[in-house]
Amino acid sequence: MDSHAKLRKYKITEKQSLIEVNHLKVELEGHHVDITESMRSIATKKFGKFEKRYDRLSVVNIIVKVERNAQCIEAKVRFLGDTISVSSSDKDFYKAIELAAIKLGRSLESRKGHIDTKGREKPPIINADSDGLEPEEYN
After folding, report:
1. Are 70 and 99 in contact (CB under 8 A)?
2. The pLDDT value given to residue 81
3. How far from the centroid of its chain's Cα atoms is residue 127's Cα?
4. Cβ atoms within 10 Å, residue 70
5. pLDDT score for 101
6. Which residues of the chain have pLDDT under 50?
7. What is the pLDDT, as a whole number, of residue 21?
8. What is the 3-state secondary structure (H, E, C) of 94-130?
9. Are 31 and 63 in contact (CB under 8 A)?
10. What was the pLDDT predicted at 29?
11. Under 8 Å between Cβ of 39 and 45
């Protein structure tokens, strides 16, 4: 298979790379706020770092609201069968985005830890007063 056939298989052009097939999509929505290009780029930069660590992420939904002179950020993501949502607020938009990204990173790491431990078997419980042998059955 030549390189052009590979590119046609993944439906991408020659100028794009194969890495972009699994690209994390950041959807930014504003309630009573106009979303500027700089807001979009900083959100993509902060939340785009999860693409490398969590390969099963595909979309991060971010909602920006203004409430009482504070920027409120709500971020939702679907990861390993659960919807994880975090929120943060600050007077500064960039600080609020950074706080939301930190919270989402912690929540994703926690969820990943729960999934990792479910696959392990628990060690057998041995009573301190027993000698480690199985208890005899009583009639």
Report:
1. no
2. 80
3. 41
4. 14
5. 95
6. 1, 3, 6-21, 139
7. 38
8. HHHHHHHHHHHHHHHHHHHHHHHHHCCCCCCCCCCCC
9. yes
10. 92
11. no
Single-letter amino acid code for the residue at 76: K
Structure confidence by residue, pLDDT tens digits, 18-42: 333 357 888 999 988 889 999 999 9
Tell me the two tokens of residue 96: 């609020």
Burial (CB count within 10 angstroms: exposed 0-12, middle 13-18, buried 19+), residue 65: middle
Neighbours of 37 (CB within 10 A): 7
Element (H, E) at 40: helix 37-48
Phi-psi region of 42 (alpha: psi -120 to 50; beta: other; left: phi over 0): alpha
Q: How far apart are CA 102 and CA 86, in angstroms?
A: 10
pTM score > 0.70 for this model? no
| Count of CB atoms situated within 10 Å of the CB of 63 | 17
- The helix/strand/coil state of 1 is coil
Q: Which letter, b or e, does each residue of 92-116 get, where b requires 16 or more Cβ atoms within 10 Å of its Cβ?
A: ebeebbbbbbebbbebbeebeeeee
| Length of the chain measured in residues | 139
